[in-house]
Amino acid sequence: MTYFMFSTGIENSCPTIAQGRKRVDEMELCGHYRRWREDFELVQDLGVKTLRYGLPLPMTWLGPERYDWEFADLAFGDLQARGIIPIVDLCHFGAPDWIGNFQNPDFPELFACYALAFAERFPASQLYTPVNEMYICATFSAAYGWWNEQLTTDRGFVTALKHIVKANVLAMHAILSVRPDAIFVQSESTEYFHAENPSAIEPAETLNERRFLSLDLNYGRRVNSEMFRFLMDNGMRADEYDFFMRKHLKSHCIMGNDYYGRNEHNVTAAGATSSSGEIFGYNEITRQYYERYGLPVMHTETNTCEGPCGDEAVRWLRKEWANVLRVRNRGVPIVGFTWYSLTDQMDWDLELREARGRIWPVGLYDLDRKPRAVGDAYKQLIADWREVLPAQSVCLTVPLAPYGRSGAGAAARRREAAMPKAG
């Protein structure tokens, strides 16, 4: 069937901070474990039919081939009963404690086994984001020193990036062995770096190539000579690079792009960056990514704070929606739009670097589940545009099987065949 995906999401970030001693669990902080049925009712009330939704990975994936599906069975069963289609978010900024962090070279193959186990248990799931915002996860964990391994080196960044993207690719292969019609929505941050003066042009150009690295590797697009040298100088081997060029699954993908006002940056001659605020905007930056990859697009995240005047978020929603229509009218196949997230979040004003318990008022609903002005505006926008927006082609089929346990024998037979060889 044809379907334009008006969407929202349940924020499920779970990185560790404080040298791994503390985990920031947004589902817990925002009350979803206690109020998940109420949250799904709010999704229905909005008129949203697709939901970016994932499990608490560290509490679900307990060890190699050890899983606790209790919460997953309840949540995904309820979504199916309500007719809400999940875009399954398997890894959102954090690995389980027993793995450690994204420097662990075993992470990609282990994560593919987890993806396979999930797909076998929930074969009705068709839409996936195996690893959310791969570029941001590697940058914040291993270049900025904020999360997880908390490194601040180029080698740490390249190591995290190659492991994260390989995990994403291997997970796609594993899921396709169970669900051959699976579609992968790569929710990735779309960035741009502006030179403050002529002396900053070179570092800005370098950063504007580096922003593409996660998707270049994921989609098997050869990087330029400068980025190739950067990767090789910082620990990527030639055979690892060749894996990405040969094993990509671009034909199964929708390019999900996330855009916030903070996604554009000023760059100094020394390469230091700071937020520039919105200069180009979603339309122009999406065009750059579309021209590079040529894939259907979904706007997979945006928000802004409600603010003291009460209408800032509503104005941002209208601006982003106007940009979505502009993207479509320029001939780019755009298949969905997402306000992220359903409820307010916690401590994202500090990018989760500290656990202060501070509410970040960006949700369609506050944490008491009362609608914000932007929630009412989004509900009306969906009602107004659902029937008149020409839909794009997305293969969303009737579920093949109910949610719940599938045969253990199938897991044993598929597990080896699902994993492409890296050599």
Automatic annotation (TrEMBL):
Q: Where are the transmembrane segments?
A: none
Domain of life, per UniProt, equals: Bacteria
Report the GO molecular function annotations: hydrolase activity, hydrolyzing O-glycosyl compounds
Give the UniProt record's GO annotations in the biological process aspect: carbohydrate metabolic process
Check the record and name the Gene3D superfamilies matching this protein. Glycosidases
> What SUPFAM superfamilies would the database entry show?
(Trans)glycosidases
Keyword set, alphabetical order: Hydrolase
Which protein are we looking at? Glycoside hydrolase family 1 protein
Q: Give the organism the record lists.
A: Methylocystis parvus
UniProt lineage = Bacteria, Pseudomonadati, Pseudomonadota, Alphaproteobacteria, Hyphomicrobiales
